[in-house]
């Protein structure tokens, strides 16, 4: 399993994100970016530029993700994090691991409309792809407060509403499984006789900690493993790098449409990660943006006119800011690997990419009564970005746009061995064979 054995760290004088900055609570579509103060950043030897020989080579031209100064990446943490990510004993009732909601073959989504937690709680939202989460300026569909992988992993293990892995109230019991793995009742994951030596792996990963196996170190290991899920080797990327015969002509026409002023997609899904909500080493502004893309326009007061409301449980940014204008504002997620991550949107309410195009072409979704969510998203008072106005698209252009989406699939990422299940021989995506 070890894939390399050096983990020296250097401290580079580069600007770093201030993770305490709560930039965009106003959530306006025309966000004012918040300047990032200049402070040193810790950089590990795990990431390196393409061709550098580093354990994880960034796709050519990609910026370096930020690393936390109290949790720099190391090869040992990556290996440990991978085991924890796939180990079902990391849920209290030993039925679920991170990977049960984040499947590699689906670019780390679960294919469900909304996720189901280890104790059968319905999650209010759709499992997000873990593609390039290291570059997210905020985590989740609309949470301005969780701004890095570490806080995300902590939230997931302790979450009670819904219960995901169910650590709250059971931390010691779960840590004890890690402390004496060979004696533990490893009901959840079959190790096929190869029980991982967690005590040694934690000690190697956290040599400076007096007590290596703690909630804090487990969370750090989860965070590090999530951070290496970097994808930038799709046909689209290869074409960008000047490799010939990678994108089809149809996909190239789709790219023109996507980046054109008729469809306007790139305003929110632009940049190297196809999202306007990114952060990385060297960026001088952190963009935490949330938009309403006109999915719902529910009439709350019964006067027959939509009030821009979204179904309960999913108010988007408004859930944090309480501002009515933030109703239905979500982060524009990356569109990398989008062909593998259906169903779409925060609530999985759009089944296919074809229907996503219908949605934007209409300039908002129309839901007819008696559906309790009835309303015309196009007329929502919160559809204020100015970019969701509808457009005409021919059948051929629609095919081109879908070919473009497919050209964003990175098979190397979906098939990468170092991101795969270390315990079981889980079938990979058929395209990996
Ligand atoms: C019960 C299913 C489930 C489990 C288990 C689960 N996740 Fe998730 N994950 C989700 C859902 C659903 C979301 C979106 C949550 C939201 O927006 O409220 C998500 C979001 C994320 C994100 C944010 C992605 C982004 O682009 O913002 C990351 C990172 C993540 N999960 C990592 C993990 C890790 C690490 C674990 C294990 C410690 C884990 N998840 C366990 C369902 C799950
Ligand atoms: C005003 C900003 C904005 C524009 C313009 C925009 N989007 Fe989006 N997009 C979003 C937001 C926000 C979401 C998530 C919304 C939600 O879940 O409620 C989203 C979601 C998506 C998704 C689903 C992603 C997933 O992981 O489920 C796809 C696909 C998509 N957009 C494609 C497009 C295309 C194609 C265009 C151009 C026709 C476009 N978008 C234009 C903001 C925008």
Structure description:
- It contains 12 helices and 10 strands.
- With 433 residues, it is mostly helical.
- The protein has 2 domains: 46-230 and 415-432, Cytochrome Bc1 Complex, Chain D, domain 2, CATH 1.10.760.10; 235-411, Orthogonal Bundle (Cytochrome Bc1 Complex, Chain D, domain 2), CATH 1.10.760.
- The chain has a two-stranded antiparallel ribbon with strand order 1-3.
- The model is unreliable at 1-28 (pLDDT under 50).
- The structure holds heme C (2 copies).
- The site of one heme C has 24 residues, from helix 10.
What keyword list fits this structure?
Cytochrome Bc1 Complex, Chain D, domain 2, binds heme C, 2 domains, 433 residues, two-stranded antiparallel sheet, 10 strands, mainly alpha
Concise synopsis of the structure shown:
By secondary structure, the chain is mainly alpha-helical.
Shape: globular
- For the record, the CATH class of the largest domain is Mainly Alpha
- In N-to-C order, the SSE pattern is EEEEEHHHHHHHHEEHEHEEHH
Radius of gyration: 22 Å
The distinct bound ligands, ions and cofactors come out as: heme C
CATH architecture of the largest domain: Orthogonal Bundle
CATH topology of the largest domain: Cytochrome Bc1 Complex, Chain D, domain 2
Question: CATH superfamily of the largest domain, called what?
Answer: Cytochrome c-like domain
Outline the low-pLDDT stretches: 1-28
> How many DSSP H or I helices?
12
Would you report the number of β strands? 10
Distance between the termini: 20 Å
Largest sheet: 2 strands, antiparallel
- What proportion of the residues is helical, as a percent range? 10-25%
Q: Mean pLDDT across all residues, rounded?
A: 88
Strand content: 5-15%
Give me the secondary-structure category. Answer: mainly alpha
Order of strands across the widest beta sheet?
1-3
């Amino acid at each position: 399993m070890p894939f390399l054995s050096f983990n020296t760290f250097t401290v580079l004088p580069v600007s770093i994100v201030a993770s305490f900055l709560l930039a965009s609570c106003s959530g306006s579509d025309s966000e004012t970016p918040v300047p990032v103060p200049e402070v040193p950043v810790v950089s590990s030897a795990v990431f390196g530029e393409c061709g550098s020989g580093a354990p994880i080579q960034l796709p050519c031209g990609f910026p370096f993700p930020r690393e936390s100064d109290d949790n720099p990446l190391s090869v040992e943490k990556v290996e440990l994090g991978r085991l924890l990510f796939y180990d079902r004993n990391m849920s209290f009732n030993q039925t679920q691991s991170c990977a049960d909601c984040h499947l590699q073959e689906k670019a780390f989504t679960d294919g469900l409309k909304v996720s189901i937690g280890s104790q059968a709680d319905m999650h209010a939202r759709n499992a997000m792809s873990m593609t390039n989460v290291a570059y997210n300026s905020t985590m989740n569909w609309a949470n301005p407060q969780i701004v890095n992988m570490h806080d995300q992993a902590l939230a997931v293990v302790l979450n009670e509403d819904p219960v995901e892995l169910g650590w709250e109230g059971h931390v010691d019991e779960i840590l004890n499984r890690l402390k004496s793995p060979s004696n533990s009742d490893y009901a959840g994951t079959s190790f096929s006789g190869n029980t991982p030596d967690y005590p040694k792996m934690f000690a190697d990963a956290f040599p400076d900690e007096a007590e290596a196996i703690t909630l804090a170190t487990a969370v750090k290991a989860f965070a590090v493993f999530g951070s290496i899920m970097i994808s930038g080797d799709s046909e689209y990327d290869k074409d960008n790098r000047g490799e010939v015969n990678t994108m089809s002509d149809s996909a190239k026409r789709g790219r023109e449409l996507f980046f054109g002023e008729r469809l306007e997609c790139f305003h929110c899904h632009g940049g190297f990660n196809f999202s306007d909500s990114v952060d990385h080493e060297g960026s001088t502004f952190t963009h935490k943006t949330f938009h309403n893309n006109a999915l719902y326009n529910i009439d709350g007061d019964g006067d027959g006119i939509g009030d821009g409301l979204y179904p309960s449980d999913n108010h988007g940014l408004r859930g944090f800011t309480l501002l009515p204008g933030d109703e239905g504002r979500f982060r524009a997620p990356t569109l990398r690997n989008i062909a593998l991550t259906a169903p779409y949107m925060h609530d999985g309410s759009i089944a296919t990419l074809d229907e996503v195009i219908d949605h934007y072409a209409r300039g908002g979704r129309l839901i007819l009564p008696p559906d309790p969510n009835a309303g015309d998203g196009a007329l929502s008072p919160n559809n204020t970005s100015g970019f969701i106005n509808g457009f005409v698209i021919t059948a051929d252009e629609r095919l081109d746009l879908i070919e473009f989406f497919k050209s964003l699939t990175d098979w190397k990422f979906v098939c990468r061995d170092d991101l795969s299940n270390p315990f079981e021989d889980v079938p990979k995506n058929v395209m990996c064979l």
